[in-house]
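#data-curation
PF: Archiving a pair of folding outputs for the training set. Convention for this channel: one message per protein, sequence first, structure tokens after, nothing in between. First:
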Amino acid sequence: MKSYLLLLASKSFQQFNHETQNAIYNEFYHLVYPHIFNLVKDHATTEDIIQDSFLKIIQKTPKYDNQEKFRAWFKVIAKNTTYNYLRKHSKTQCELDENLYLKYSNQFISCCSQSLEDEVESKMMIEEMEKYLNQIKSDYRILIDLRWKQELTYKEIAEKIHSTEEKVRQKLHRARKAVKKIFLKKWDFNK
């Protein structure tokens, strides 16, 4: 199967005919759409982010001879554009999705582990999330591990740690808030 995205390594986007330009954009669109939609959960916003990402790509395309590096670079641009959007728009939204940051690493691996660059990117994201988790209390880390990594129910967690479901819910809520606080501090959403 011919990769139209690789044509960007040979010459400027504007030098291609209209059909080839459409093919390049469509391939990029299908490459990054699932990843972006998984984060923003809105079709129109996803399309806006894809368009912004694509404009960045065609304005400053590096010259890679390796197809995998080229595709990975496209995904990094799309990911960074998505994170910038989330940072910028979190001020106007009433609440960030606390579970997004906790569940993201597992979801990313399950939906995106088709290629080597996806695996590398997902491992980097997991490492970043692990850093956040290592900065919270050990009780919270244990609960997060039981809930999201082992996928236990509140009832199963309560039985395992000899507590009540209500206390588990309350502590998990505090754990999510603690991770969110670290995330917001790291990404400085007050700019």
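PF: Second:
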Amino acid sequence: MTILIINGPNLNLLGVREKTIYGSQSFDQYYEELKLLYPNFALDYYQSNIEGEIINKIHECRLTHDGIVLNAAAYTHTSVAIRDAISAIDIPVIEVHISNVHKREAFRHVSLISASCVGVIAGFGLDSYRLGIEALTKLNKDK
């Protein structure tokens, strides 16, 4: 199984920014753990602070990957374009969030991308990504 993990804006600063919300581990460190946990999967990782680059990556991977685990970060709440990109592809996308967005500011309670994703996982720290991979694994088995 080939899975692409996409992280949106500011997630390149995990382990540095707002540690009380996002923890002290960098995503690169966590990604290495995921690769060890899933040695039979092809896990790829992409991060961008730029909306258009995220959209381009979603378009590209429709031909090369079985699914996407997407943390669109702040674009979750603002990007119709990312929602449309998800809707335009035929592979499943799992929306993930490190924090429980529903316990945070009101503007974070609305996701523009959720309706285009097959599911949403939030509030389990970096483990939200592992849970997203597990969800894609189950979807792939149910095909």
